[in-house]
Sequence to fold (900 residues):
Amino acid sequence: MERKTCLHVQGLSLSFGGVSALQHVDLEVEEGELLALIGPNGAGKTCLLNCINGFYRPDSGRILYKGRDITSLPLHKRAGIGIGRVFQGIQLYSGLSTLDNLMAGRQRFFRYNILSALWFLGRAKREEIQQRKVVEKIIDFLEIEYVRKKMVGELPYGLRKRIDLGRALAMEPELLLLDEPMAGMNLEEKEDMARFILDVHEERGISMVLVEHDMGVVMDIAQRVVVLDFGRKIADGTPREVSKNPGVIAAYLGQEAQRTVG
Amino acid sequence: MDKVQKAVQELDTLPKLLLANYRAHPSLVAMRKKDLGVWNPLTWEECYLWVKHFALGLSVLGFKKGDRLSIVGDNDPQWYWAELAAQAVGGAAVGLYIDVIPSEVQYIVDHSDSTFAVAKDQEQCDKFLEVTDKIPKLQKIIYWDPKGMRSYRSIPRIISFEEVAELGIQHERENPGLFEQMISAGKGKDTAVLCYTSGTTGLPKGALISHDFLIKGARKFAQVKPWQATDEYLSFVPMAWIAEQLFMVGWLLWKTKVNYPESTETVQENIREIGPHFLLLGPRQWQGLVSMVQMKMNDAGSLRRWIYKASMGIGYRVSQYRFERRESPPLLWRGLHRLAEWACLVHIRDQLGLRRARTGLTGGSSLGPDVFRWFQAIGVNISEAYGLTEVNPVAMHRDWAKAGTVGPPVPGVEVRISSEGEVWVRSDVIFDGYHKQPEETAKILEDGWIKTGDAGLFDENGHLVILDRLKDMLTLRGGERYSPTYIENRLKFSPYIKDAMVVGGEDRDFLFAIINIDFDNVGRWAEKKGISYTTFVDLSQKKEVYELIQEDVERVNRNLPPKARVKKFSLLHKEFDPDEGELTKTRKLRRAFLETRYWAMIKAAYTGQENLATEAEVKYRDGRTAIVRTEIRIWGAE
Fold:
């Protein structure tokens, strides 16, 4: 059965002055697919994500989201059409509680105006309760009940990463961009995170683009892997295919292997 | 209502009590469960219908009178509904602890002849599936939390709680009145529960517990500590434990409202939200509360610290009058106490969720006298209770909790001390033997007395004092008798010590202690002192930390006879871990195992070495292992 394409990146190029960060990159993400994006440092992975969710405007090429050209759509509107992101560094309001951070993620669903908010009138109250229910389901899903009312800034790193994922989920994305969600975690936290990502993918059927350095994790959970090197796509296939690709081994895994041996 | 209540008191099985409660007051709130951040009330009618439908569903699937149902999971309404359903059909429930491992699941399911299992979620179901080929008698595994169970739907043995209840609803339509018939066929002598002992030695034994045992046990308990219909209770000690089973009977007999916490991590928060009248915590948890307050006070500003110190001083003094001298304090102290209450004490109780607590209970192992005194000072009188799976309860404090004792025997229970100093108990209700192990049953019974295996004595007030397990009372080479547990408990009162094991014996002249530091508290202390560290291993071997712990060891030593003091100790580079078999499920030390495991360290301590290079195998939760190398110090104390 042919699946629909969720995201289609066509011939994307981006350069900063003389440095070309992306060169004619093509990328296709099917609906409900978990795609991993890998490559050595500076290969352009984060750049590509930044183009997709609108932080950078590409020099040439097009980005199609569900068949619609979003290349020039402003950043905030991309969240509105269902592109969510988990950042490499944590982007949470550290002075707010876990609950409030997740509620902030629901922002695009709030419809009431400032007046009813001011008096907490019928509609505002109803909506707050409705949105809170959705957020509580995410809290239950990510097993973070015990930090519901804790200030995010006080929480350990691994937990904040999990809350960051929760915040991204709160906006009910149809395409989720995960930029190194497991960076800096210990083994146990990584395994928990991988479990949550798989559960999100399975139960909510969200399409995902995962940038990750830990090859073990990528090989375990990704359905398809795309490899970037110096801004060019050098491989695209199943984890098994990619790990056997000589170009990839030379560019990425080879260095790793040499380093381990040396 | 009195007539109803009287009728309830005469019923002899738990499902009969449930039915009576449902008929008398269907719309009264029976329990609450916190879900998605909200406390959801459940009425007696809802509880009754769930039990009814689940029981009928079970019997459609083939669960018969005399069958056994294994249950494992966090404390949730479904746990108890499943138990009552099994009992309603005429079967019995087998409770498993949530941290049970697959090989134990296999043993208990097989040994108890369980034909069905109720397991909360994916994590618990996995344990059954891992040994699925070795438990052929088991027909279905029923889960009640669907999270993560999506991919399990295709496994034929797996079915959800709702689906079973759905089968029951259909069955009920075809056979109205069947459920009530099943219930009335039940008798008090029937086995209600199989309690597998946590097994400090050998394989777990399954004690057969009848409805009579549970109902009479709960009544005896209530004679000492009455329950009331307005009471709130928070259920979170393991349901597989006999004490929690008695409290659930209290729910049926006296309509105490039972509240189920949101998750194990939120218990402290949930206690505060509910403000239970009745609270059973293990000694560790009571100690944990004390350490928590003490640590928070250490971080507080100087004014607050002063208020705390002054108020606690007054609290200690007044509780001394009230509890030790048994007299009313002088007017001046009463006045000061009012002030202390207003300024501090009531707020501590409030923060801990103990503002309404009428009865604080502890059991399992003994609670340090300092913890007792601390709670008495803030105005919470903790009682220690003593009981066994085989006969429960045995002894309990009344209004006067005397630290170091477990109180006088409860009415209807006889206690005597044998010539070897062992505690023997006789009661009108005891267990019905160990399942399929008559030789073990014979070992524990003698002329109607139950030999507890505990060493004990009666003090001058007629309170029972439990010293230790009989086999654990030890002597040093010089003939000095000591109880390692007692010393360990004293050590653990320090906020910096999480666990300890005292080593000695007849061929040794002094005591040596292996101590686990409390990583959070010692870590915070180190940060304050500007001592840098990386990991637990690193922190535990800091010279400064040894000096810190030395003070605690010496404080404990001052109360010990000079010949039985802890002269040397080591701080272990890791925590004792139940997953590695170092602790039992109830977190008691597995001494023999630990002594073999840390044999090199113990030997080094007694041969006068000051350092020991150690390589320890660390087992991660996923089964992988790694080697940790470190140099462990052996430190002296006076």
About this structure: The interface with chain A takes residues 35-38, 147-148, 150-151, 262-263, 265-266, 269, 620-622 of chain B (CB under 8 Å).
